[in-house]
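User: Last request for today: this protein with flavin-adenine dinucleotide, please.
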Amino acid sequence: MREQVFWGWGEPGAGPLLPAHADVFLRDLGLPGGIVETPVALADVRLRAPELPAAARAGLEAAVGAGHLLDDAETRVLRCRGKSYLDLLAQRAGDCEAAPDAVVRPADHDQVAAVLRVCAEHGVAVVPFGGGTSVVGGLEAPREGFGGVVSLDLGRMDGLESVDERSLTAVFAPGVRLPEAERALGERGLRLAHVPQSFEWATVGGCVATRSAGQSSTGHGRIDENVVALRCATPAGELATLGAPGTAAGPSLRELVVGSEGALGVITRVALRVRPVASGSRHEGWFTRSFADGADALRRLEQEGLAPDVARLSDETETRIGIALAGPGGAGRRAGMAATRALGYGEGCLLVLGWEGDEKAIGARRRPAAALLRKAGLLYAGKGPGEGWARQRFAGPYLRDDLLDRGALVETLETATSWTGLEPLRDAVARALTGALGHAVVGCHVSHLYPTGASLYFTVLAARDRDDPAGQWQRAKRAAGEAIVAAGATITHHHAVGRDHMPWLEAEHGALGLELLRAAKERCDPAGVMNPGVLVGR
Ligand SMILES: Cc1cc2nc3c(=O)[nH]c(=O)nc-3n(C[C@H](O)[C@H](O)[C@H](O)COP(=O)(O)OP(=O)(O)OC[C@H]3O[C@@H](n4cnc5c(N)ncnc54)[C@H](O)[C@@H]3O)c2cc1C
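Assistant: Here's the final one, the structure of the complex with flavin-adenine dinucleotide:
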């Protein structure tokens, strides 16, 4: 079983480290430079003794087999919460009082259903656990009012169950991690092409349960656009949908389960659209004089049917952060930036584009796109910046651990709106964040294009308030959330609702909309034990 470190990202020593030159950038933020704090050792973590009632424990052991109910400290600490900044602050400090009493590891749908029955009967909260990469508080259930908390780890349900090569669909068990899913499909010349930055750890079921978007979702669609059918075990019974490619049989129940974050039940099987393995890819960089010019060029690419598979436009600040924190490849990027300044592109914004396919097909798609970009005044920067991005596309979360060691506040948030609303939304959110944090660096990029609008993804860096680090971020997040709903944008484009986005959900769905979701929960989960607190509150 692969496991991450309990206080950060990935396996020990797996990722890149911050380059030495990053300290210059960090000192500008008011940080002293160098390591100021390290995570506690596992032995020093604060953890309550497991408190599961004996009858519930016996029922769960009967459901999954005694060897698959675990309550050792390490297993519980690893299932305590997800990987947001607030999660990591708590884990690094060894605050694991909220850890589940036990972790159960069912082998199949029937065992999942049996676990849910036992939990409902004994009033034990149950939290589905896929890859554990939630960044919205999706995995930390409150224990008040419950006879205990159980983490339902889907790690044993990790197979590629079947492939229909003619229809280009594949059926997965929910706990298969994305790299393993791609490996299994690759053996048949197929792929999912779903690559969130959490790719190394996120599971198929977790992605479906949170409506995730990958780095090439502009070309291949978000995960929700690729779900063909699913099966979900709820405490009230099974909810399963057909795999028909289109239907007029009323509102989509598939859509009710996609994005339900474990509040209704556990997704135990997913059929997804797949596509042939790409024989090649091309990543390249372009510079634009301003974010507004770049965003408008992306709008035109998308609306004229010329968008590539990957399209990421960084604003001036994010372009600068990328250079400050980049590893060895950064020297090339720094030289590139000097050249763009000389050509009159000022500080410039970096646009990375990526196409997947064979050389001929890429050429045919790229030519008209490049012509449009040149006409719009963008400057071609060669393959270097694109290949650099592709090489470092999974580095960010490892560098975050280093930044935390150096005393930084480092977090991201995301939203989406119409093309018309994009620029005002970016300004409003950046203003809200800097207003709340004072001296902070707020970078932003566009990374998912739609005919009617695009997503915005913000990265925030500041010196951490050592006395009240959680409160410092909560105030900033509240200000950003209020700016987002005031602008009529979505509170989350792909991270999901979890517990962290609950305060803004009514602004998104309206009071009646939320009542409808609650009614669905009450019907599927009458005892209210399914991941209490996410999506519809308690
Ligand atoms: C460094 C980092 C980068 C990220 N990058 C991206 C990105 O590029 N795009 C993106 O969309 N997201 C991203 N995320 C967010 C996160 O990876 C996604 O939300 C992902 O979909 C979660 O998958 P998981 O398997 O880790 O699920 P978990 O974190 O284990 O679970 C997420 C939620 O879904 C529920 N759940 C999990 N499995 C099931 C199931 N089978 N049935 C019912 N409920 C279930 C859980 O209870 C929880 O509420 C990132 C997170 C991190 C930490």
